[in-house]
Design a protein that fits this description.
Pathway: Protein modification; protein ubiquitination
Number of strands: 19
Shape: globular
Strand content: 25-35%
Organism: Urochloa decumbens
Family: Belongs to the SINA (Seven in absentia) family.
GO molecular function: ubiquitin protein ligase activity; zinc ion binding
Largest sheet: 6 strands, mixed
Enzyme class: transferase
Number of helices: 9
Bound molecules: zinc ion
Length: 336
């Protein structure tokens, strides 16, 4: 369209004196409803977005001053201009901690607009990530669970290792797994390797069990959380980036729990869903999507029987051949 109008102008210019024609176009007020057909120079100026490369000396303005997380969605301010993210407004019950005025009703639109327009490179660009124009609001999620160049942190207490997913797998296998295999009790049984099936003993007192998938070099955490009355919460977390979309769909889990010594009767408990992925475990247990295991299911010695199945929900694209990935990740872990 732009070209055609340009051609038109050029054709008109061809017929009349070029300079005169151009002057006429410039002077003409733009028609209110017609397609804009101003002089070519004008068209280009209107359609090219204005951009500005900026270096920020400090990121303070882009972070919530209460929780220090990057502003990503709605930003609120009190009438004195103190800003806070939406979840902090809820947390402080709508009272600005700086001045005591109400906060949570007035949006800070200019800052929201500025953040929405910001494109930034992934922090792991130097490690090979090619996402150089991420939206600022999406960068944290990309780096936390999607970036295949971001290092994953070893979850074991006192260990500072951090490396790519397969390196983390090898690290845990070599540095932590040996001790794990020998000793069924105590801090030892930290990690269990599995290909298709593995046996672990999940104790009530342990916060998590590491499951190492050798074929895919993936690390899973079977999280055993407290904080729920009259029982425990079991959930699964994959330490590493979400599998690439082309690799075929979502990673799915099924966890089945049976009472270790028949204390809970023949009933088993189960939960299933997509496996959340993160490159570090922050130490808290997911509050959504967990399996509640009542106290009665834990044996007198404090163990429970857990079976974990992993598979990949075949994605829509190329599901025919991609479905075989399911077999790769089939696994089960059981306790005595
Ligand atoms: Zn906040
Ligand atoms: Zn305030
Ligand atoms: Zn990245
Ligand atoms: Zn480690």
């Amino acid at each position: 369209m732009e070209k055609r109008s340009g051609d038109k102008a050029a054709a008109a210019n061809g017929a009349a004196a070029p300079k005169k024609a151009r002057t006429t176009v410039l002077r003409r007020a733009p028609p209110p409803k017609k397609d804009p057909e101003p002089q070519p120079g004008h068209v280009a100026a209107e359609e090219e977005p204005k951009t500005l490369d900026v270096t920020l000396a400090s990121l303070d303005a882009l972070e919530c001053p209460l929780c220090f997380a990057p502003f990503e969605a709605e930003i609120f301010q009190c009438k004195n201009g103190h800003a806070a993210c939406g979840s902090c407004c809820d947390r402080v019950r709508g009272t600005c901690p700086s001045c005591g005025d109400p906060i949570g009703a007035i949006r800070c639109r200019p800052l929201e607009a500025a953040i929405a327009s910001m494109l930034v490179p992934c922090s792991f660009a130097s490690a090979g990530c090619d996402r150089r124009r991420l939206r600022y609001a999406e960068r944290r999620a990309h780096e936390a669970s999607s970036c295949h160049h971001a290092p994953c942190a070893c979850p074991l207490p006192g260990c500072a290792f951090s490396g790519l997913q397969h390196l983390l797998h090898d690290h845990i296998r070599d540095a932590h797994h040996q001790a794990a295999g020998d000793d069924g009790e105590g801090a030892a049984a930290a990690a269990v390797g599995f290909v298709r099936e593995a046996t672990v003993a999940l104790r009530r007192s342990e916060a998590f069990r590491v499951l190492l998938h050798a074929q895919d070099s993936r690390v899973f955490l079977l999280l055993n959380g407290g904080g729920v009355p009259f029982g425990r919460s079991l959930s699964l977390l994959a330490l590493g980036p979400r599998p690439a979309a082309a690799g075929g769909g979502t990673l799915e889990y099924t966890v089945v729990v049976r009472a270790a010594d028949g204390g809970g009767g023949a009933l088993s408990l189960s939960a299933s869903g997509p496996v959340p992925c993160a490159r570090r475990w922050a130490g808290h247990h997911p509050t959504d999507g967990f399996l509640f295991v009542p106290d009665a299911y834990w044996s007198s010695s404090g163990t429970v029987s857990v079976t974990v199945h992993l598979g990949t929900e075949a994605g829509g694209r190329g599901a025919g051949a991609g479905g075989r990935r399911q077999a790769l990740l089939d696994a089960s872990c059981t306790t005595k």
